[in-house]
Write a structure and sequence with these properties.
The protein has 498 residues and is mainly α. Helix 2 packs parallel to helix 8, helix 4 packs across helix 5 and helix 13 runs antiparallel to helix 16. It has a two-stranded antiparallel sheet. The protein is globular, with a radius of gyration of 25 Å. Helix content is 68%, strand content 2%. A hairpin with a 5-residue loop joins strand 1 and strand 2.
Length: 498
């Protein structure tokens, strides 16, 4: 079997211009970013709304936490409904109910009955539209090429942190210029606008989950690999949550209020830059290897902060762990792809979002309890990252098909190779990898020797091959199409007269 057998179309380039120029990509990215702005605006807007109306800061903080917690806890349920009924039938009612709740708050008033305000805020959090998980589920249909999908997923994850910079800033400006009530109504309008942009796009309107085989649709989603992955990513979220409290502590220690916002902003900026720098580069090794490696780098990025640096140094150093956050989260989503049933991917993505959010809340809570102990507080982000790395390291065999076929374990189709053909994935004796085991879209796995291609092009070509059927299946489909065409010509009216 040779590489000349499959279709010879070259894989599409995995560049930013090619990805952003693909149909629907910019619309989906922009719509999702606008629709997710309320995630960063509502908690801050609620604090401004309650305190502006004479309420206590404690009650305002409770409402902000309730909104975020309700939104996170409801993600898996909404993800499962989306996998079953499609995106429009879930996100459309959710965003309408969310908007009605946010519009109702100014009517009730900040000085209204606390129970009514709490109930409306909690329900608003429960019905936030699941745009992030939904967008993740759309990318395979919008960008079938894995290389391009890696670029857009990294852009999506990297831009997520910027929402928590732009959201509070926009909420502050609206409250100062037009009043806290306007902040809530504008936030609702932005959420509605972004969701409408996404839901009216063709990929979202026509998206359907992959068909489940047998009892898979109603069976269990969770397996030991997914549970371990989500526990590890909770540690990553713990580091981020502790960092926010550490930033506030640094601001108090140095008497610089701006540090409480500057440090998280530097961290989020690092996450965005890290995504831009690494998105286009194909990384060696399996997804599990990449997840473990980026988690290790994420941990190392926190260690300089244990030295209790000054304000300027702290802002610069906060960028370092941020550089690897996007890669950890993106590799987590890729690992979910390998572990979750194809018919339940949106729900699985939602569970990852919940695990990170839960870890973030736990990190914030524990850091708040240790706020009077600066050294322990500075160590908490590193402790969360170390926990994630430890879980991933010891549970690595459970996190997906990272093993090479062994002596008694062969792929379904294996081509005959000469004895001197380079070994496969993970062979440390190879200086440049030339043997690639390709899992084709038809389900067959075939080993290819790509030594006749430049080393810089092998990874992208291998990624492209995974989206194609193997040679045998391709030829079978072609022969079937030819036979069907001949039958149609034979049955065409007037055929017998010729």
């Amino acid at each position: 079997m040779t590489l000349a057998d499959p279709p010879t179309t070259a894989p599409p380039p995995a560049t930013y211009s090619a990805v952003l120029g693909s149909r629907g990509v910019v619309r989906l990215l922009a719509g999702t970013l606008v629709g997710r702005l309320p995630n960063g605006m509502v908690p801050f807007g609620l604090v401004l709304w309650i305190t502006g109306g004479g309420g206590s800061l404690a009650f305002a903080g409770l409402l902000a936490a309730l909104y975020g917690l309700a939104s996170a806890l409801s993600q898996p349920v909404k993800g499962r409904l989306m996998d079953r009924y499609g995106q429009t039938r879930v996100s459309a009612p959710a965003v309408l109910l969310n908007c009605l709740c946010l519009f109702a708050l100014p009517v009730i008033g900040a000085s209204g009955h606390p129970a009514a305000v709490t109930a409306v805020v909690g329900f608003a959090g429960l019905v936030t539209p699941p745009l992030e998980a939904g967008l993740r589920a759309l990318w395979p249909t919008v960008l079938p090429d894995l290389g391009q999908r890696r670029v857009v997923q990294t852009l999506d994850t990297g831009s997520h942190g910027l929402l928590y910079i732009a959201g509070p800033l926009l909420a502050s400006w609206l409250a100062a210029t037009y009043g806290p009530d306007t902040t809530l109504t504008t936030t609702a309008a932005l959420g509605l606008l972004g969701t409408v942009i996404v839901l009216t796009a063709a990929p979202s309107r026509t998206w359907r989950p992959a068909a489940a085989e047998g009892p898979a649709r109603n069976g269990r989603l969770m397996n030991i690999g997914l549970v371990i992955l989500f526990i590890a990513l909770a540690g990553t979220g713990f580091a981020v949550g502790a960092m926010n409290v550490w930033a506030a502590s640094m601001a108090t220690t140095h008497g610089l209020t701006m540090l409480s916002g500057a440090l998280p902003a530097a961290f989020s900026t690092g996450a965005f830059i890290g995504g831009l720098l690494h998105a286009r580069r194909a990384r060696p090794g399996t997804t599990t290897t990449q997840l473990t490696l980026t988690s290790a780098l994420f941990l190392l990025g926190w260690l300089p902060l244990l030295t209790q640096p000054g304000p300027r140094a702290a802002i610069a150093l906060a960028v370092i762990p941020g550089l690897f956050l996007t890669l950890v989260i993106t590799n987590g989503f890729h690992t979910v792809d390998t572990l979750a049933p194809a018919s339940r991917t949106t729900e699985a993505y939602a569970w990852q979002i919940l695990s990170v959010g839960t870890g973030q809340a736990a990190g914030t809570a524990l850091a708040g309890a240790l706020a009077e102990r600066p050294l322990m507080l500075a160590a908490l982000p590193a402790a969360g990252a170390a926990t994630a790395l430890t879980v991933l390291t010891f549970a690595r065999p459970k996190l997906g098909p990272a093993r090479r076929p062994g002596r008694h374990r062969r792929a379904r189709h294996t081509e005959h190779r000469p004895a001197n053909t380079p070994l496969l994935d993970g062979d440390t004796r190879m200086t440049v990898r030339s043997g690639w085991k390709i899992p084709h879209s038809c389900g067959h796995e075939i080993v290819y020797d790509l030594s006749d291609r430049p080393a810089s092009q092998r990874a992208s070509f291998a990624h492209w091959l995974t989206g194609q059927g193997c040679t045998d299946c391709w030829k079978g489909a072609r022969d079937s199409d030819t036979a069907s065409r001949e039958e149609w010509l034979a049955a065409r009216p007037g055929r017998a007269a010729h």
